[in-house]
Design a protein that fits this description.
Length: 281
């Protein structure tokens, strides 16, 4: 990876028009609707009644796509993985409209030739009709093949500490074998989640679930646990992706009343989300 080439790369703005069916597709792709008799779940998947919006939907709106595959970035695109994700809502996410996502590179941190590099990104999501800023999204990408580059290194961002005591709530959600195939319809075409050969070349035994899908699962579980009567009260959410989820595994979300959370893949007893924090208003 060439530091100057990556820092100077202009990530294209992403303009997107969406409607209720897009929000329903997102809700279904993160596991809502698995109980079609549950009124709480149905409010997110019934386009005849809104629908209500899962706040983490802002993470897929105005997404610039897999821009790291552009050779001009000079990164090893076949070895990139999602390391961290966060969002802060400035106004409610609408169920329809046109938005523009403006993503910029904030910093690059060199972890060394054997560990890769951290790429820090920030996206501002705005409503094109009103000019309102809907959300600010932060995203960290691990460039596993690009550590030890020739250029300056920034400073790693600290993460919220996890509580020492047992969680206040624990909820397990079973993912489906085809969930990554469904989730990619939200606008993430990275073949790591689709093509077994690409996944094996990247060091995984098979395609992995999108980190943002795991993040979305945690989001709706947290909403149900602490804001069931007011899903719109969630203001921000962030977490580190500590290990991948394989489609078909069970994700157990562990939560504390102070907003801290983490999640593990039950079958392998591996934490897949760490240092999570959700805030409400």
């Amino acid at each position: 990876m060439k530091y100057d080439a990556l820092m100077g790369f202009e990530i294209p703005e992403a303009r997107q028009t969406f409607g209720p069916l897009d929000t329903v597709r997102y809700a279904l792709s993160i596991g809502l609707g698995h109980d079609p008799l549950d009124p709480w779940q149905l409010q997110f998947v019934d386009d005849h009644k809104g629908p209500h919006i899962v706040p983490s939907f802002c993470s897929v709106l105005g997404h610039p796509g897999f821009w790291l595959a552009d050779p001009r970035t000079t990164v090893d695109a076949g070895r990139v993985v999602h390391a961290e994700q966060g969002f802060s809502l400035k106004s409610p996410v609408p169920s329809a409209g046109t938005v523009v996502g403006k993503t910029r590179i904030v910093d690059i941190v060199d972890k060394g030739a054997q560990k890769g590099a951290l790429l820090y990104l920030e996206k501002t999501l705005g409503d094109t009709d009103t000019g309102t800023i809907i959300a600010t999204e932060t995203r960290t990408i691990m460039l596993r093949g690009d550590g030890g580059y020739d250029g300056p290194s920034g400073t790693p961002r600290p993460a919220p500490e996890e509580p020492d005591e047992d969680p206040d709530r624990t909820v397990a959600i079973a993912t489906r074998p085809e969930q990554a195939l469904f989730y990619r319809l939200n606008g993430d075409p990275n073949p790591l989640h689709l093509d077994p050969a690409v996944a094996q070349k990247a060091g995984f035994e098979r395609p992995i679930l999108h980190g943002l899908c795991t993040f979305g699962i945690a989001c709706h579980v947290i909403l149900r646990a602490f804001a069931a009567d007011d899903p719109g009260s969630l203001r921000s959410m962030s977490a580190r992706f500590s290990a991948p989820v394989f489609p078909g595994e069970t994700v157990e979300v562990q939560m504390w009343r102070n907003g801290a959370f983490r999640a593990r893949a039950v079958e392998r007893d591996v934490f897949v989300l760490r240092n999570g924090l959700a805030t409400f208003g």
